[in-house]
UniProtKB/TrEMBL annotation:
It comes from Enterococcus malodoratus ATCC 43197. Residues 160-320 form the Mannosyl-glycoprotein endo-beta-N-acetylglucosamidase-like domain. This is Mannosyl-glycoprotein endo-beta-N-acetylglucosamidase-like domain-containing protein. Residues 46-55, 67-93 have a biased composition (Low complexity). Belongs to the glycosyl hydrolase 73 family.
Amino acid sequence: MKKFSRMASALIFTLQAFLSTPMAVLASDMSSTKEATEQVQKATDTTETTESSTESTEESSTKESIESSSSSSESTTESTSSGTKPSESSTPSDQETPKKEEPKKETEKPAAPKEESTAEQSNQISQEVPTPETIVDQEATIDLSRTVPSSTVTQDGSIHFEKNESVDSFIHKIGESARKIGKEKELYASVMIAQAILESASGQSQLAQEPNYNLFGIKGTHNGKSVSMATQENLGNGTLYATQAGFRVYENYEDCFNDYATLLKEGITGNSNYYAGVWKSNAKTYQEATEYLTGRYATDTQYAQKLNGLIETYDLTDYDKELQGPIISRSGYKIPLQNYTISSVFGNRNGEFHRGLDMAAAQGERIYAVKSGRVIKAEFHTSWGNYVVIQHEDGTTALYAHQQQSIVKVGGTVSQSQIIGYVGSTGNSTGSHLHFELCKDSSLSQGMLVDPQSVLFGD
Ligand SMILES: [Zn+2]
């Protein structure tokens, strides 16, 4: 442990409490990193905030690793961990919401066509757990702000997070992908989402965002794509140096979860069961899975408590279940919400024409596409707020207004019942509700509108 860590303020200790320290994840297809790395032009945003720089210093001091730039995927890795573990504050924290990062500079660097291999482990576990080759770069996100939700640590050691809007919004973006992959691969979606929150600073890291979608800091190439990011490596003696490393680039979050799930299922070279303890077939509860990851995926001794705290605060176990979509009407349309009350009907009201159907529902209630189609609008409008228009195959369109958050993009296709967003009260709206319009074409002109009730609930 370096001297400077002693200078850590209470704030740093608090921040540190949430830092995860992924130890090692090994791709079974490490050899893919041998392939010519496609150079993805990438704007590497290096942002510095007070928090991130102190944080980075603190975190770096808690672990040491030697980077080996061997050309072989069988490269040996050395670990000279100081064996220190993150200290944990036992006092409640009043941390503010994570700050939004402002990109300060942009540099374009080609992807480094070389292999990176680092490994970290704590002395405590070095006897029991083999050191796998690491493709998760924990330094990768250090120079990005790794702000995390505020939390408190109780006497029994469990960690409670304060619900935070930006984290909620991030979960909305990645949750359904995790649900799908979790089901397919028999893994806890709740655990993967909680890990993604920690590893990507709730999606704020540059690596986690479009167009990279790398939530777990996984190195190498994916389908020939990689992005070079500035990162800090540790020489093994505590000396940090700046370098560039290649990280996998994914098509979208689902692609990322799928790749990560593959790692968990296929393990590491020479030990395909390395992560077997997190499989649903072996872990009866998500708590067993998070416990198994501690000391194995991350050196952080508080890793399980952090994941558990996030899973509880954000009800992530909901994503471990299969989604019960809303009912389908006789006309073949899905009802866009599951829990709602009709608060205003289509047509004239108080001398004004109401263009759609208002369905009152709780903030954050899922909005389902009534039919499959293509997204032709997804933007903010002063009266509709966050709204989405989807054109169906028969040419009709549906408009969904006042969303808290929409999670589809113009040009994208959606299937019937797919979640397109969440109920809110944005724009000119009183109270949380979905304003839903149906139009015979894409004009959205008043004369072409139809009464949604007659279609959704009619004979
Ligand atoms: Zn309305």
